[in-house]
Amino acid sequence: MNIIPLLVLCSLALAACGLLAFLFSVRNRDNDYADRLAILPLEDDSPVESIDS
Amino acid sequence: MTAIEPRLNARGETRDTTACRHCGLPVPAGAESAFCCSGCATVFELIQSSDLDRFYELGGGRGQPVGPLGGGTANLEWLEACITPVDADVSRLEVDVQGIHCAACVWLLQEVFRRQSGGLDFDLNPTLGRMRILYGASFEVSTFLDACESFGYRVGPPGKVEANEERELLVRLGVTVVFALNAMLFSFAEYTGMSAADGDAYVLFRWLSATLATLAVAVGGPVFFRAAWAGVRRRVLHLDLPIALGIGLGYGASLFAFVTGLGAAYFDSVTVFVALMLAGRFVQQRAIRQNRNYLLENDGAEHVRVRRLRAADGSVERVTADEIGVGDELLLVPGDLVPVRAQLRDAAASLSLDWINGESEPRRFEAGDEVPAGAFVAGRRGVRVAVLATAADSGLHALLAVPNDPEEQDRSRFWDRLNRVYVAAVLGLALLAAVAWAVIDPSRIVDVVTAVLIVTCPCALGIAIPLAFDLAVARLRRQGVFVRRSSLLDTARGVRRIVFDKTGTLTWGGLRATSLRDAEGEARDVLYSMAQSSNHPVSRAIANTLEGARFLAELEVEDVPGSGSRVVHGGHEYRLGSSAFTLGDAQRNGESVCVFTRDGHVESCFSIEEDLRAGAADELHTLEADGLDVWIASGDRAAKVSLAAERLGLDKDRAVGDMSPTAKAELVERLGAADTMMIGDGLNDAPAFDAAACAGTPALDRPLMPSRSDFFYVGAGVGAVTAVLGGARRFGRVVRANLWLAAIYNAGALALCFAGVMTPLLVAVLMPLSSLALIANTMRGIGARRAMDLPR
Fold it and tell me: What b-and-e string marks burial along B334-370, b requiring 16 or more CB atoms within 10 Å of the CB?
């Protein structure tokens, strides 16, 4: 049964890592920018014609 | 046009509707266009012509209702103050944007930015509605912002406050979820057979469960403890009280059991409960925050800017309303707000008072007349006024004051009653269990009471109802309705009467001319030139009907105040105006007919009517058919209100004109404020807004009214009222069903507790199951696309 404390430690360490990643994401305001992040893969770097406003 | 779900009225009749090609809202019955309003048509054409139709793909096939677009380009007087130079060639601009509602909006604005040369970086926070751009010397800022406004968005100085409370809540939620999942993990070992016989590992797991639960309560609990305590101090039974009670009693009882060894501890259930309650709170707060951030910040008098004429050299400087002094001379251009009490310097001017008293037609002021603060310049020429009082003394601050939005307004009597019953029931049942087991087996009192307190934790209140609220609010957003106060869906269920303002609410505030007899040839050009030369709204309405006519610049049109205009051309005298003026005949029906004559013979004739909002008559008819009392309360002349009621198919007895703001509020009180909804768009409606149970406004282009209302809406018609009532009814149905489901679950679980057979494992299974059942019921009731229906 000695392995149990080690496994517990590992699981808590993983949970702590997840928590840190979450806090990092909150700090970067990813939640505020969810709509913008959702379209990042669609962004096109090619030049475009000017728009007539 | 695309067919959409049929709309049903209370009698179950299907109303044929087609969807607007831009926003998907129903196109008003009888409309020939494929769009619900002119704004949607304009934006759709612009998106297509700019090759930006991917906007619709990203937005799920539809955009946001636009409504009428402003005629001019953006008013950017404030812009300079928002620009920060980064270096010699690079600047940064930070502005708020109104109308952002999804990823498609972000993409559209980003594309507009990208297509303009000189742009360096684009950053848009869609949750807050804040745009930051970095640009070089060749970038035309005003061109870019004009382009944004042409797509139906509005830009303004940054005034919104970032929601730190929401971020704090998100952090608390995330941390508590981590604790809850791990607490469940360690509890699971005990449920599957781990016991004291396992020695140190069992002790470790118990300690870990207790520690994680303590941390979860320490991190997540204060949100509810603080709010509940604040409510108790104000003698208000806030929704947070039963939740705080559930957390406190459940955790306290579990801790007692853990320390004394008497009975079972329910740490995993407590942590899951805290996490679920936080999730519910976050969802609810986010929904309201998103809706409030949809609009530009209500910045009161601070950003009202005007042109002041320098006495020394007559040049113009731009100043804020607060900088205006008595005796200053101001130059006001068409559309400007008169920020202070002033005296007209020019010979004559046309000013709109509809914001102040609801008058639909601009009023003519002569030189020397006093002009009230809050009027708008309605003519086509600028006017000069002399300041008689400062902004503070003119009542501008009072007019533009942002009302307090206390938390009390977000409560409803339904929840007050429910909270009272709930708190009393939980404490009573715990006491009853203690008494019963004191007789049966005193050694198990703690065990049973702990189980009772745990199973009665109000999951339905904390998670399923916020979820129902979020879904209902999201559904209303899709219909162009934005809920600002969380109490709306409760109060709207009790609405039995709707009082509409007329000008700007049921009408567009303008006039529509319908030709009864067309002028031809040169007479038509003369008519067009006369109509174009006048500032009168009737003339503008007539000019709008004369497509293709030529403007004869050489004509010298003479205005005859109060009657019309005349001109001599080619040896003929032309007159345009009332029948009394043109034909010497008595005016038949107020200003409903306008005649154009040549040498006393009728060349053309127009019926003049107020420009009703699209589908307004149909919507009002539906509301009446569903048993709601519909009233019109307007500051406009009684005859015009009566005429509008007739056109809308309403009983004239329920259309009251010549009403002051106070009289409107008194009418609402007299009819029964508790079950009255007020819909209006002007400051003259504000007292009635405060008096009514709930209020809504379509006035998004002017500050203040949205901040005083429970909801605001976009689009051309008044279908928002139907949508709100239907949404409130659906929400109420789901809430009642959830409460019943929760009651059934609690009754069963309490029976097990009283029988002494409840265990932590059973609670760990039953509580999530009951929550899932409630969530499923909520999704079924609101999440699914259903036909619109109304309260009966």
Answer: bebbbbbbbebbeebbbbbbbbbbbbbbbbbbeeeee
